[in-house]
Specification:
single chain; alpha/beta; Elongation Factor Tu (Ef-tu), domain 3; eight-stranded parallel barrel; six-stranded antiparallel beta sheet; 10 helices
Length: about 400
């Protein structure tokens, strides 16, 4: 069975990812990863996260996939040693010099997608140099992946299956640095590609706007990857780890996507599980290069609203009463639905008999992160999520 690999932007998300079925997570420390603007982990948090994972037979991989400068190397060498001591299960790198330091630290080394590994000769080289795993470039087709696995069967292959994609080749983008002074290749991307741009053409001594439609032109705005219906093909091609993008995504996105992919891996794809991936906010979906290049340019705004609102997260179940922490305002009489790795997944019920944190009856859960209690006809567990379908969805 292939590994389901989820993003973890912080310790709470790490625990949530494992609760909903991830086999492993990838994360960043406070430096050296390509998501330095994410929440990321202190050494104490990483220590707790690794212990939490290993107690459950799970794994934690740490990203050090910046393109390093000379000044980064002493601190990076020290950080690799710390991650090794804390028990990290592997480190993601892009830079050949960082790769050499990582090997010397004794950590298993995974080659990041930023290294844009597109062919079997490159995979063979990384294997010969000592890499344990290669995260293949998103630009590869399933057929190309299969050929690589046939020729180099003794190295692990990881591939992205879901989430946001960079419009630049393997994410090696300079637009953010040029426009905002925040270099993407050092973890500071401002996502300039998601903006609407105006293109002008010169004709007859003047300029006129070139637009795809009346909203403007999203020239660089990529659709999101969604390979949920094709995990079997990827596994048959030799992919051993299915990677979900999204260290900067919220709890609801993470729980929904991990839960859907876990169930697809365990039970097979169905339309109902595929529709789960419409629940959180997302861009239009594509299979990108997997079966021959699709049109990946989205003419919509950066995000499409999902079909559900994240209403509350379950803190406890006391008898038949759910104790929840509010995320979106809800009311007595609202129909809520359970998002859970348990058999309660998909169950619906109406909120009745609600009480606030002081035990007083209330009909309006309006306090952000306020604690509320109400009966639930289905067994819930800490970490379950309650959601509400949007009108018209």
């Amino acid at each position: 069975m292939a590994e389901l690999l989820a993003p973890a932007g912080n310790l709470a998300k790490l625990k949530l990812a494992f609760y909903f079925g991830a086999d492993a997570v990838y994360l960043g420390g406070k430096s050296f990863s390509l998501r330095s603007y994410a929440e990321n982990f202190t050494e104490e948090e990483l220590k707790e996260g690794v212990s939490f994972a290993h107690a459950r037979g799970k794994k934690v991989y740490v990203a050090a996939n910046i393109f390093a400068r000379n000044a980064d190397l002493p601190a990076l060498k020290e950080q690799l040693s710390v991650w090794k001591t804390l028990g990290a299960d592997g480190v993601l790198v892009s830079d050949l010099g960082v790769f050499d330091l990582a090997l010397a630290s004794g950590l298993p080394v995974h080659i990041s997608t930023q290294a844009n590994t597109c062919n079997l000769a490159a995979v063979r080289m990384w294997k010969r140099l000592g890499a344990r795993r290669v995260v293949l470039a998103r630009e590869l087709s399933v057929g190309e992946i299969s050929r690589i696995h046939e020729e180099v069967p003794d190295i692990e292959l990881e591939a992205f299956v879901h989430g946001a994609m960079c419009i630049s080749y393997s994410g090696r983008c300079y637009l953010s640095d040029y426009m905002d002074g925040r270099p993407a290749n050092r973890g500071a991307c401002v996502q300039a590609c998601r903006r609407s741009y105006r293109v002008q053409a010169e004709e007859g001594g003047g300029f006129y706007d070139v637009e795809a439609d009346g909203r403007g032109t999203y020239l660089l705005n990529s659709k999101d990857l969604n390979m949920s219906a094709h995990l079997g093909e990827l596994a048959a091609a030799g992919v051993c780890s299915f990677k979900i993008e999204g260290r900067m995504k919220g709890e609801f996105y993470l729980a929904t996507v991990v839960n859907a992919y876990r169930r697809i891996l365990d039970m097979g794809y169905s339309e109902a599980l595929g529709n789960e991936l419409l629940s959180p906010a997302h861009r239009e979906y594509t299979t990108a290069y997997a079966f021959g290049r699709e049109n990946m340019q989205s003419q919509a705004s950066s995000q499409t609203e999902g079909t559900y609102d994240f209403v509350a997260i379950v803190l406890d179940m006391v008898g038949e009463n759910a104790v929840v922490e509010m995320r979106t305002r809800f009311f007595e009489g609202d129909e809520l639905e359970v998002l859970s790795p348990s058999a309660s997944f998909g169950k619906r019920f109406s909120v009745q008999g609600m009480r606030d944190a002081l035990g007083q009856p209330c009909s309006d859960a309006k306090l952000v992160q306020g604690v509320y209690t109400f009966p639930c006809p289905y067994p819930l567990q800490k970490g379950d999520i309650l959601r509400r379908k949007k009108a018209g969805a």
